[in-house]
Amino acid sequence: MKDSKLLKGTLQTIILKLLSDKDKMYGYEITQQVKQLTAGEFILTEGALYPALHKLEADGYLQTDSVIVDGRARKYYSLTEFGQKEQVSKVQDALTFVEKLQLILNSKPSLS
């Protein structure tokens, strides 16, 4: 995606939605899931992902669990009950926004 600002504006919604579909995920797994689902069109960088994850955690939407994998700690993120509710709201807002944006983008200019 050429304009990363568009992706950044929906990053929290994307994270919450992915975590609602799976019990828990770690950062790299989230980046790879986004890449796979969008056939490589959306690339999440660590510089964008981790601040968003930390903000969602600080706001009470995510909880973390550290697990030792191959001798290294891996931090898994999962939704809190509050995060589940926020996910539903954010996804609905995003769907409504996309619907209205499509109306605007597909409209024919009126000749006044």
TrEMBL record:
Gene3D superfamilies: Winged helix-like DNA-binding domain superfamily/Winged helix DNA-binding domain. This is PadR family transcriptional regulator. Residues 15-86 form the Transcription regulator PadR N-terminal domain. It holds the Pfam family PadR. Signal peptide: none annotated. Coiled coil: none annotated.
